[in-house]
Structures are given as structure tokens and as C-alpha cells.
Amino acid sequence: MEFLENRKTALARLNREIVACRLCPRLVEHRERVALNKRAAYQSCEYWAKPVPGFGDPSARVLLLGLAPGAHGSNRTGRMFTGDGSGIFLYRVLHRAGYSNQPTAARVGDGLRLSGAYITAAARCAPPDNKPTPAELKNCADFLAREMALLPNLRVVVALGKVAWDAYLAWRKNSGKAAPSPKPAFGHGAEVDLGDGPILLGSYHPSQQNTFTGKLTEKQMLAVLRRAQKFSNRAPALGPPADPFRRRHGGGARRQKD
Ligand code: SF4
User: Fold this and answer.
1) Are 123 and 26 in contact (CB under 8 A)?
2) Complete domains list, the chain, with CATH
3) Closest approach atom of ligand 1 to CA 142
4) CB within 8 A of 182, min separation 6: which ones?
């Protein structure tokens, strides 16, 4: 328990550092400009307009790794995948899979809780056209590495799109882990298990570009999350679940000690 509290404190400290970051001039300019040019529907909203920190369960076994904040979604609300179409889709599926206590995410303070999962992104600032540059992704990679180090129960990384897939592979390289050769190709349902780090699963990104066109359905994303659950439940387990909400991720088995 003491370890868990220390980790929560360390994650909170890291998140404060992320929120204060201004390393990428182009992204700083963009995230702040978007906040001045609000969408008509959000005229009365105060935009967050800062880097968006990770969100979820510090004991997570599953990490969902996205691309970057949406300009009028999490760049507005300040929480991962909150306030736009991608989030509406994602949290509905996370709820169906038992990773969230509610199917909706409207704003910070809406009661949303994740259990067994943590959500983060390869870049923490909203990029123009949803495209961070390689240099910006490199700048942000250190935050991902430090976040993952503070989530020691991780068993699976679900990469939401190719940029996230590549960010996980870059994390492996930067962590001194063996680089898979040939480089595994991203695809929905693709899996990479190298035995010395979280298993990598690929999923199409839940952007409206994919969900409105039928490229990604709830059923398809749920299948990836069920697969992630299967891998995460395979890990050795110790101790009973802390509460009934958590029990859904233990599959009736005992939970790893924090
Ligand atoms: S993208 Fe990452 S490194 Fe760049 S300014 Fe935002 S938080 Fe900092």
C-alpha cells in the first residue's frame, strides 16, 4: 500500500511537470491559438490549452497509448480522450470491457474512474492536423518512459494507431530492450510479444475518421480489449481485489500486489 501511495505521488509530480512543459514551440503556439479560436459549441468553455497528463489506475495492467490530444477535445477539457468523438467511442468500449465505471467522459470531475487501465498519448499537446513531427514525438518520449516506469504492473500496451505503435517500439529501443527485426507492422489486432516488456497490441485509432466510416467498430475494439484482458489476467496474481469494481479485472483471480 505504501508503494502504491508513493507511486501515486510520483505520478502526480510527473503530471505537474508534463502540464508545465513548453518544449515544442509549434505545439505550444497551436494549443494556445486553438483556445482563442473556440468552436461555436464551446464558446462558453475555458480551454485547458496545456499538455494533457496521463489518466487512470496507477495499478493498471493495460496501457492505452493514443496519438495526441484532440484540439477541441482533451485540449479543451484537460483529460485524455475527454470531450470529443474519439472519447465518446473509446469510453463506451472501455465501459463494456469493464475498465471504466461509466460509459461517458464529459469533463474532469464527472466521476469517471478507470480500473486496470491507464490512458496516455505519444504527444501530450494538440498538434496541427493531428500530426506531431518526429522531433516533437521525440521530445515527448521521455514523459512516456517515465510514466511507464511508474506503472510497474503493466502487462499490455494497446497502441491506438501507428504513431502510438511506433512510440512503443521507440520506447523499447530507448530502454535498451532488443529491437524486433524486421520491425513489426502495425495493424488492427496485430500483436508483438518479445517477452521482456508489456505485450504490444494494435488497434485502429478511435477517431471519427475511422469510426464514422466503419473502419473501426465497437465490436472490433472490444475484441482487442478482451485480448488485452486475457494477457493481463495471465500474469501472476497475489492478494484479493480491493473492491467489487476491481474484481471485474481479476477474472475471479487474485490481483498482483502493488
Ligand atoms: S508535446 Fe510533449 S514535449 Fe512537446 S511541449 Fe507538449 S508536453 Fe512538452
Assistant:
1) no
2) 2-250 (3.40.470.10)
3) 3
4) none
Task: Look at residue 5 in the predicted model and tell me its pLDDT.
Answer: 87
Residue whose Cα lies nearest atom 4 of ligand 1: it is: 24
Work out the average pLDDT over 175-190: 93
Higher-confidence residue: 240 or 35? 35
d(CA 31, CA 220): 32
Does the beta carbon of 68 sit less than 6 angstroms from any atom of ligand 1?
no
Decide: 147 in ligand 1 pocket, CB within 6 A.
Answer: no
For residue 51, the CA-to-ligand 1 centroid distance in Å is 6
The burial of 208, by beta-carbon neighbours within 10 Å (0-12 exposed, 13-18 middle, 19 or more buried), is given as: middle
**Does ligand 1 come within 6 angstroms of the Cβ of 18?**
yes
Q: How far is the CA of 137 from the centre of ligand 1 (A)?
A: 8
The predicted-structure confidence for 87-114, as pLDDT tens digits, reads as follows 999 999 999 999 999 999 999 999 999 9
pLDDT of 110-163, one tens digit each? 999 999 999 999 999 999 999 999 999 999 999 999 999 999 999 999 999 999
* Residue 125 near ligand 1, beta carbon < 6 Å: yes
Atom of ligand 1 nearest to the CA of 137: 1
Q: Which bin fits 217, alpha (ψ -120 to 50), beta or left (φ > 0)? A: beta
pTM: 0.89
- Which residue, among 91, 54, 88, has the nearest Cα to 69 in the 3D structure? 54
Q: Is the CB of 126 under 6 A from ligand 1?
A: no
Which atom of ligand 1 approaches the CA of 132 most closely? 1
Task: Report whether pLDDT(252) > 90.
Answer: no
